[in-house]
Amino acid sequence: AGMFLRLLSDVRWRAARPKWRGATCSCRSTSSTAEPHPIALPAQAQVVICGGGIMGTSVAYHLSKMGWKDIVLLEQGRLAAGTTRFCAGIVSMARPVSIELKMADYSNKLYQQLEQETGVNTGYVKTGSISLAQTQDRLISLKRIASSLKVMGIPCEIITPKQVAQLHPLINIHDLVGAMYVPEDALVSSANVSLALATAASRNGVQIHERTSVSHVSVQKGRVTAVETDRGQIQCQYFVNCAGQWAYELGHSVGEPVNIPLHACEHFYLLTHPLKEPLPSNLPTVVDPDGRIYIRNWQGGILSGGFEKNPKPLFTEGRNQLEIHNLQEDWDHFEPLLSALLRRMPELEALQIMQLVNCPESFTPDMRCIMGESPAVHGYFVLAGMNSAGISYGGGAGKYLAEWMVNGYPTDNVWPLDLKRFGSLQSSRTFLRHRVMEVMPLMCDLKVPRWDFQTGRQLRTSPLYDRLDAQGARWMEKHGFERVKYFVPPGKDLLDLEQSKTFYKPDWFDIVGSEVKCCKEAVCVIDMSSFTKFEISSTGDQALESLQYLFSNDLDVPVGHVVHTGMLNEKGGYENDCSIARLSKRSFFMISPTDQQVHCWAWLKKHLPEDSGLTMEDVTWKYTALNLIGPRAVDVLSELSYAPMTAEHFPSLFCKEMSVGYANGIRVMSITHTGEPGFVLYIPIEYALHVYNEVMNMGQKYGIRNAGYYALRSLRIEKFFAFWGQDLDAFTTPMECGREFQVKLDKGLEFVGQEALLEQKQQGVYKRFTMFILEDHDADTDLWPWWGEPIFRNGRYVGKTTSSAYSYTLERHVCLGFVQRFDEQTGQRLVVTTDFINQGDYQIDIAGQRFQAKAKLYPFSSLFAQRRRKDEGELSGY
Amino acid sequence: AIPVRSSRLPLLSDAMTAPAHLYPLIRNCEISRLCSTVCYCHHRHLCCLSSHFAHSHFRCAPQKKFAALCRPKEDFNYFFHTRDYASTPQRFYLTPPQVNSILKANEYSFKVPEFDGKNVSSVLGFDSNQLPANAPIEDRRSAATCLQTRGMLLGVFDGHAGCACAQAVSERLFYYIAVSLLPHETLLEIENAVESGRALLPILQWHKHPNDYFSKEASKLYFNSLRTYWQELIDLNSGETTDVKEALINAFKRLDNDISLEAQVGDPNSFLNYLVLRVAFSGATACVAHVDGVDLHVANTGDSRAMLGVQEEDGSWSALNLSYDHNAQNEREVERVKTEHPKAEEKSLVKQDRLLGLLMPFRAFGDVKFKWSIELQKRVVESGPDQLNDNEYTKFIPPNYHTPPYLTAEPEVIYHRLRPQDKFLVLATDGLWETMHRQDVARIVGEYLTGVHHQEPIAIGGYKVTLGQMHGLLAERRARFSSVFEDQNAATHLIRHAVGNNEFGTVDHERLSKMLSLPEELARMYRDDMTIIVVQFNSHMIGACQNEEL
Questions:
Q1: Is A841 on the interface with B (CB under 8 A)?
Q2: Neighbours of A44 (CB within 10 A)
Q3: A423: exposed, middle or buried (C-beta count within 10 Å: 0-12, 13-18, 19+)?
Q4: Contact B459/A330, CB-based, under 8 Å?
Q5: Which residues contact A251 (CB under 8 A, 6 or more apart)?
Q6: Which residue, among A796, A793, A800, has the nearest Cα to A836 in the 3D structure?
Q7: Is the peptide bond before A311 cis (omega within 30 degrees of 0)?
Q8: Taking CA atoms, what residue in A is nearest to B454?
């Protein structure tokens, strides 16, 4: 930190001049701070960015590069004085989520040339990094990352402990089983990177004002209009909240609060004096996740910090302060990390301590950063919550956000980072405090397929929660809603949580198998209440007209019909994938994936015409959904309702309000989200327990049992059903996933994305959703696929899987994923044809091991013995 | 009143090596040398005796309340018995579970029951424990809730010259206090019940460890004395409301008086007759707390101590004394004794920091040797049972014994109004206070009860510290921290520290194991009986009371 301090006092921001003077004009004495704000703020600007850390400066840099000039950046203290100043400066590309990996890769390339571009010394050194594995499971997780790095063209190799010793002389390798080496990872001075970005932005015309606090963001008619600061007002069209750990509070200083769920935790790292023989500056950075620490060289000594098991959250009450300093060093708290450090590098015992730095980092509820536009306030953008990887993401995140603002959407799918994946329900301070205490240790914890968060649970539950729980339900969470994974039969014990973490065959394998079997042969009940449910109705034809414009399928169907359709963007990509039932001529019932609650609402609000005769209501909480899957569902339901439920009377994709047991007004739909026969019952919540009890009692003689989402997933994946948010995203069109039948290009009405789809229909698609059956994979002994595994066609990389499941029917693993076609010389993307898919020889790479796979563009017809309407293949659950 | 605290720790670690080099000496039967060595190291340990004591055979167990006269026969036996364990290999190492089973053998906890999920009492509960050094232990403890008046009574009693007096006081004193506090009507009601053979109103609800016993044989005798007391109270009915302070003083004095009278009168039953004499000729100090809402009274006789644990605004802990030690270190007490006797005796009254050169506490129950006239003593001893006559001690008359009584059981009573920052009260016999400073006691208990380890944060400052050094330091601090979680009882936790603390203020298992595995005969050299009660207060209730009155 000493170094940073010195540099900061040299590199003095000159608010007195419109143009910033860079590092060359050093030696500004402190007296320059005595003239606080010689330049007045502009009265208006196109964009106001709040926060002068790495995020704010990166956004300013990229916006100005993209041609937006009228930008003001405000910093409450000094530029790069917050978390940015203290951060460890490690640029690491080893990220499990592909979008994060892309951001880190871009950042690395950007920082590398930044000094040349700006003249500011960024301290960029390509050191490489070594991630150590103390266990085989850890090594598997590193191998998985290595696979995805390699196909991105980032050099990376799995090395032996001996090779580790050759790369780094101080590492104790006795307890290692292997490591991952990423030679292009780098170190930077994070504050200087930030200053360099600011310099470049300033040269491009961005005005930078330090010591200016934003107190309030004014909103009119749902749009940002102005920013109030302690130095006056700036009128603006766009506001960008890059306030780091203060972003949450700043988000609430708006008339319409912008929920930015993040929470700060103290983060400690150690600085030492140089070794007797100072460490070379290009020595690789060491990450020892099993010891929860990272170690980089620092001025001949080391800098080492980590992510402890018992983090200390702070600022829960939102105590604000100008700059982060005077936070206490806490050696007792650091003790486990120090032990890990000395275990990893015993020779450091004699090394003299310089300082223990306490630098708060902000964490988010799902360990991914927060980016995008507020669903409630147009023009209000956010970039924050970096989960201690701000430097790695800074460049890429700034670029994506700038693209988002300038072009309406980034050049890549950023849904995993989109602010709209959260709602107000993740904004409770208690929730955040508890969740970040889990998230911070998770930075180092081993993450196996289908791990779940343990904190902040039981927030949203179905009325049947206790009933199901008592019957052995095991739960997972989506958007705060508890959903059943599977039911543990009485008398059967599963491994405890720690032991059941595995990359191999999980302990629930047989349990889910029997649930699937029951769905195939008898009938199962799955509580699917978490789905987002909207009702749209109008006084006249407005509802139909608007929906016809927003959805690609034809919604002008007879009352009582259910339509599966995409909600597409201009490029024809899926913004949402839903089922819509026409309840009456003028009202529609729309079912979307659980985590669409905020995004879909915002999208509809944005696109539906202002019309008092058109109403939209979120009725998610009003209905409990029971999915009856299986051939005997018909029997159960007809006995309970005294109504014939056979295909003649109740065809597939049909919706009708009827009575079930004593309860009337149950909305019954003949869809199951799996392709299996059955019904979903939308039950007003007060009837939920009654209907459930009736169904279970009546179902007994048909062999009814409870089932969970794992069974559902296995069923839908073997049926080749895509899942929005997992398989489908804003960059995927119906044409690319074999759903042309859901697009009515000829419905006679214009709809969003129509043009793009027409073009695609003529020119062909550049990627194709494909189903892969693993051939030589042994489910008992081989690593299981998860998602994100590279797909190889004739030995060449063609894409990644998006989801996978074991098919109990096929007794094989099924992976779903997209196949692309790259020109062998130029790497350019080419049109993917059916022949291209069918004529390939495929392999799926699971943690470095390749398995033969058979590609299919259509599901197994034999599995569809029960299908009733050929042209209306069903969509999956969400 | 704490003997040379600062030098204690390093000295104690020297003393720890003593047992090892004692054995060869014992084998050679060099008793006199042994004696002086033992006294020497013990003396260094406690720093409370003047050096010439070491030359006296009789004064070789110097920490006894009676410097010279403690069962000399047994003490001789002890030296001869030492041969036994010289031939059997000593196990000095106890495993942590063994240590814990010793430390926890006498622990007791009481939680004040809640009504409607609310504790309306100012006391949340208490933890108590005792660790013997004498065999049998001479300390006693009592705790009871007053059923006819409000309030809770807690007390520790440190016996000397045997445990008889401490036992009797621990059984009887709370009844005397409870009766002193009772309003006239209740006394009448009780008396009428006894008179007509009806069931008696229960006066006290005892909170006893199974090891805390009551003498069955003496209960009738004790009851009759108590009944006489309340009958007198009924006759004396002043119509005034009972003042707690006065009640405590009266109860203490009355019980001591009854002990004295019972011994003078004797009992036809030879067992009881011997018992009452043993009670009267042995002694006991008493430190008793009466808590009723925010009103806390501490009555103290002798050198046990009551201390309040106060949490400062910054979260740190400090100690507030609620009793004065009645011993030679207390100048006011020395002054009091001197004014009560002719000037001619001034020099002989306090010698070697002891009353008449013999007794460490300046106030005590029993100890009729310091209260009765020589004639009375001789008459009672001569008419008493043979066992009494054979006892060197009872026949021995203190030197310079001219104007008895020299000793009183009258307590000093301190009143304290509880504040929200007063988190707990520690009552303990001098076995604790000899080894620990009250400030440390406050901190250790405070941190234990709050579960927060408030240790000074480490700051590097300008010092040169290596990673290895820091690592060692932190490991030690963590060990200290984890010892908090071993104990479910604050008193046990305190004993663990008192016995096992090393020079860093950390519990050192090796030391703990050595101290607890000392043979009975040696234990007394290194530590005294230790009895501790930790009362935890209900800050919410206390705060609410305060607010109501504001």
A1: no
A2: 14
A3: middle
A4: no
A5: A241, A257, A258, A259, A260, A374, A382
A6: A793
A7: no
A8: A332
Backbone phi and psi for residue A594, each to the nearest 5 degrees, phi listed first: -55, -45
Which residues of chain B lie closer than 8 angstroms to A272, CB-CB? 467
Pair of tokens at residue A442: 């998770």
CB–CB contact B466 A352 (8 Å): yes
Q: Which of B466, B474, B481 sits opposite A331 (nearest CB)?
A: B474
Structure tokens at A549: 């414009």
Task: Answer whether A295 touches B (CB < 8 Å).
Answer: no
Fold topology of A532-619+733-747: Alpha-Beta Plaits (3.30.70)
**Pairing relation of β-strands A380-384 and A232-241?**
parallel
Residue A799 has phi, psi (to 5 degrees) of 160, -175
pTM of the entire predicted model: 0.69
**Spatial separation of the C-alpha atoms in residues B492 and B487, rounded to whole Å:** 6
A331 and B457: CB-CB below 8 Å? yes
**What is d(CA A278, CA A170) in angstroms, rounded to the nearest whole number?**
12
Q: Token pair for residue B234? A: 């009924």
Work out whether strand B152-160 and strand B283-292 pair parallel, antiparallel, or are unpaired: antiparallel
The reply to whether residue B457 touches residue A328, judged by beta carbons under 8 angstroms, is yes
pLDDT tens-place values along chain B, 550 residues long: 333 333 333 333 333 333 333 333 333 333 333 333 333 333 333 333 333 333 333 333 344 555 444 443 444 333 333 333 333 444 457 888 888 889 999 999 998 887 655 567 889 899 999 999 988 899 999 999 999 888 999 999 999 999 999 999 999 999 999 999 999 999 999 999 999 988 888 899 999 998 888 888 899 999 999 999 999 999 988 777 779 999 999 999 999 999 999 999 988 888 899 999 999 999 999 999 999 999 999 999 999 999 999 999 888 899 999 999 999 999 999 999 999 999 999 889 999 999 999 999 999 999 999 999 999 998 888 887 877 777 777 778 888 999 999 999 999 999 999 999 999 999 999 999 999 999 999 998 988 887 655 456 677 777 788 999 889 888 877 776 666 567 889 999 999 989 988 766 677 778 888 888 888 778 888 888 999 999 999 888 888 887 776 5
| Through-space distance between the first and last CA atoms of chain A, rounded to whole angstroms | 48
Domain positions in chain A are 44-420, 465-489+509-531+628-726, 532-619+733-747, 765-877
Nearest chain A residue to B468 by CA: give it: A349
- For residue A342, the chain B residues in CB contact (below 8 A) are 467-468, 471
B477 contacts on A by Cβ (under 8 Å): 332, 335
Query: Which of the listed CATH numbers 2.30.29.150, 2.40.30.110, 2.40.50.1020, 3.30.420.380 matches domain A765-877?
Result: 2.40.30.110
Class in CATH terms, A465-489+509-531+628-726: alpha beta
Check CB contact under 8 Å for A332 and B474. Answer: yes
Residue type, A692: Y
Q: Which of residues 726-745 of A touch B (CB under 8 A)?
A: none
A272/B460 Cβ within 8 A: no
Min Cα separation B482/chain A (Å): 12
| Cβ-nearest to A353 among B457, B465, B478 | B465
B314 touches B324 (CB < 8 A): no
Q: Which of B78, B57, B80, B79 is nearest to B67 (CA)?
A: B57
Paired residues of A580 in beta bridges = A563, A590
Same fold, A465-489+509-531+628-726 and A532-619+733-747: no
A332 interfaces chain B, CB cutoff of 8 Å? yes
Domains of chain B, CATH where assigned: 96-454+486-548 (3.60.40.10)
How far is residue A60's CA from residue A56's CA, in Å, rounded to a whole number?
6
The architecture (CATH level 2) of A44-420 comes to: 3-Layer(bba) Sandwich (3.50)
* Cβ(B537)–Cβ(B422) below 8 Å: yes
Pairing of strands A353-358, A361-363: unpaired
